[in-house]
Design a protein that fits this description.
2 domains, 11 helices, 66% helix, 274 residues
C-alpha cells in the first residue's frame, strides 16, 4: 500500500512541463486549487478535467503512475462523500428511519469526490515534474518580496523541500520494515480495515526512530558544510524566465477566465439525478 504514494516523488523527463520555471508551476497549481474551491459547478469541473487531462498528456508521465496517488486518499474521499451524502438537507431520494439521502447530498458528494481527485492529481503533476531543489528555489524566489516584512522565506522553502524529499525516503524505509516484519510472520494484508490498521501499529515505532535518525544526520551534515540560512547564498543554476514561461502564464490566466465563465454562465445538472 505504501508503494502507491506518488506525492513528493520526481519523475525524470524532458517534457515542456519539466522545463518550465518552478515559479510558473507553483503559481499554476495555486490557481488551479483556488479555482477548484471558488468555482464549484459541474461546468467548471468539466473545464478543470479537460485542463488536467491536457497537463497529464503534456507531462509525458504515465497515467497509471499518476493515478496511483489517488489510492492513498480513497478512504478520505469515501468519508467525505458519506458525510455529504447523509448530512446535507434537501429533497429526499431515499429515507430509512432518520437516515435519508437527498438530491443535494448526492450532488455535493459527487462534487467533493471530483474536487479531491483533481486536487491530488494537480499537486502530483507539479511534484512529479519538479525536483525538490527547484521547488525550493521557486518558492524562495517567488516569495522573495515577503523578506521585506521579515518573513523567513528561505527557511520555509527549505522545510517544505526537505519534507517533500523525505516522503519517498520514508516510504521506502517503511516498505523495508514491512518486508522484514513479514519475513518474521507479520500479516499486513489479510482481514478487514480495522485489523490491517492495527497490524501497522508495530511499524510506527521503528519508522519514527528512522525518521528522527535521518533528520539528525541531515542536521549534522548541514552544520558540517557551514549552512547558516539564505543570507549571502548563491545558486549554481539561477532561475531565469524564458518565452515558454510567459506563454505558460498566459495559459494559466486563460484557464482562470474559462473557469470563471463556466461557473458564471454555464449551468449544467448532473444527468443521473432527478
Amino acid at each position: 500500500m505504501l508503494k502507491e504514494i506518488t506525492i513528493g516523488q520526481y519523475y525524470p523527463g524532458t517534457s515542456i512541463l519539466h522545463r518550465l520555471d518552478p515559479r510558473v508551476k507553483l503559481l499554476g497549481t495555486l490557481v488551479f486549487i483556488i479555482c477548484l474551491f471558488a468555482f464549484g459547478t459541474t461546468a467548471a469541473y468539466i473545464v478543470a478535467g479537460v485542463a488536467l487531462a491536457c497537463m497529464i498528456t503534456i507531462s509525458q508521465v504515465p497515467l497509471s503512475f499518476i493515478l496511483r496517488g489517488l489510492r492513498m486518499v480513497l478512504i478520505l474521499m469515501l468519508v467525505t462523500a458519506l458525510f455529504n451524502l447523509f448530512l446535507t438537507p434537501g429533497t429526499a431520494i431515499v429515507q430509512i428511519w432518520k437516515i435519508r439521502i437527498t438530491v443535494e447530498g448526492v450532488k455535493m458528494a459527487v462534487h467533493m469526490v471530483f474536487r479531491l481527485s483533481f486536487l491530488v492529481l494537480g499537486s502530483s503533476i507539479m511534484t512529479l515534474t519538479t525536483t525538490p531543489n527547484q521547488l525550493t528555489d521557486g518558492l524562495e524566489k517567488g516569495l522573495g518580496w515577503m523578506k521585506k516584512i521579515h518573513v523567513p522565506v528561505h527557511e520555509i522553502a527549505m522545510m517544505m523541500s526537505i519534507a517533500l524529499r523525505f516522503i519517498p525516503i520514508l516510504t521506502d524505509e517503511a516498505n523495508r520494515i514491512m518486508s522484514a516484519q513479514e519475513a518474521r510472520g507479520a500479516d499486513f494484508h489479510s482481514g478487514g480495515i480495522v485489523k490491517r490498521a492495527k497490524a501497522l501499529i508495530p511499524l510506527l515505532v521503528p519508522l519514527f526512530v528512522s525518521a528522527f535518525r535521518r533528520a539528525n544526520d541531515l542536521a549534522l551534515a548541514m552544520e558540517a558544510r557551514g549552512y547558516h540560512g539564505g543570507v549571502g547564498r548563491t545558486r549554481m543554476k539561477p532561475l531565469v524566465y524564458r518565452r515558454r514561461d510567459f506563454a505558460a502564464y498566459l495559459v494559466i490566466a486563460c484557464f482562470a477566465v474559462l473557469m470563471f465563465l463556466a461557473w458564471r454562465f454555464i449551468h449544467l445538472e448532473l444527468p443521473f439525478l432527478p
